[in-house]
Amino acid sequence: MILDDERLRQSVTKRTRAVRTAVLRWSQQNLRDFPWRRQSDPYRVFLAEVSLRRTTARAAMRAYDLLTTRYPDFEAAARATEEELRECFVSVGLQNARARLLHLAAVKVVEEMGGRLPPDMNALLSLPGVGLYAAGAILSLGFGVRAAMVDSNAVRLYSRLWMDVLPANPSPELMQAIGEHLVPEREHQVYNLAVIDLGALVCRFGRPRCSSCVLTHKCDYFSQGH
Questions:
Q1: Which pairs with CB-CB distance under 8 Å and at least 24 residues apart come from 9-17?
Q2: pTM exceeding the 0.90 threshold for the entire prediction
Q3: Of 188, 197, 211, 199, the residue nearest 30 (C-alpha)
Q4: Which domain holds residue 83?
Q5: Which ranges of 2-151 does DSSP label H, i.e. alpha helix?
Q6: pLDDT at residue 1, as a whole number
Q7: How many domains does the chain have?
Q8: Which pLDDT score, from 0 to 100, does residue 5 have?
């Protein structure tokens, strides 16, 4: 995706190096540890994204552990019934929707993709329940391919950094374009996770902890006195 707005593109470009450097430095001591972050398996990244949707990471851990134990690959998930899959999602809720999406995706991967996810954005987006964020996570964390992971935490962080030049309600596509512009060629995995964690732990919803943020020197929100 391309940043079409000239003023925004110039502002993002001007701050890119400083933002990357600060985020990567912050990551050295502050990244959270979750089971799915210890793997470089596209299938497990996919399971994590299904489990994490609309819930907390702590709650998702139980579902993730059950899924990886009972259904170690797409073939196993495709053979399972939706009722069996629902049992894994009790801890996170929305069992019916999660089980349905997982089963539909597993069947599609087995029948149309040879049982393995491809390292291709468009192919990933064709899967039920996979949007730009999940596809970016699978590419970056699962395949080691440079891609942006722009979740709600990243959107909040970027929206505050560029508050002065962004529209009042920026589209998901625009925020994705900012993320793609910023993510480095190397260390994209660490950068993506650090942006998410910085948004979750510091640039929080409601009451951000600006006094603890490494990006205040480049932040429009902070410069406005918030």
A1: 9/181, 11/162, 11/164, 11/165, 12/162, 12/178, 12/181, 12/182, 13/181, 15/161, 15/218, 16/181, 16/182
A2: yes
A3: 197
A4: 41-143
A5: 6-30, 42-52, 57-70, 74-79, 82-86, 95-112, 121-125, 132-137
A6: 65
A7: 2
A8: 83
